Amino acid sequence: MWRSAKLPANYPPLARVLLGRDETVWLERYSIAGDREWLMLDARGNVAGRLVLSRNVVLQAVSREMLWATGTDSDGLQHIIRYRVSR
Fold first, then answer.
1. pLDDT of 44-63, one tens digit each?
2. Are 50 and 39 in contact, with CB atoms under 8 Å apart?
3. On the chain, which terminus has fewer CB atoms closer than 10 Å, C or N?
């Protein structure tokens, strides 16, 4: 069956996009393995920051100062995580 499967020639460069309440745009780069990498763009589209999170952490709400996420532990239980962003 896997021999007849058609794999895509190209993968999308982004997995998710989140809009912050403070005119920031957060882009999750597509990755099939490893951690999640996020780029934060300012209002002009310049890269203002970079964030790497564990695969089991999913960002839900973002801003320049605060990140809210959900995480799943080894037992499959979800919990809310709050990160404070520092420069």
1. 999 999 999 999 999 999 99
2. yes
3. N
The token pair that represents 40 in the structure block: 């934060």
Report pTM: 0.80
Q: Are 84 and 68 in contact (CB under 8 A)?
A: no
Structure tokens at 87: 């420069």
Q: Where are the domains of the chain?
A: 14-84
Find the largest Cα–Cα distance for the chain: 50
| Phi and psi at residue 69, to the nearest 5° | -145, 165
Structure tokens at 5: 């499967």
Distance CA 66, CA 70 (A): 14
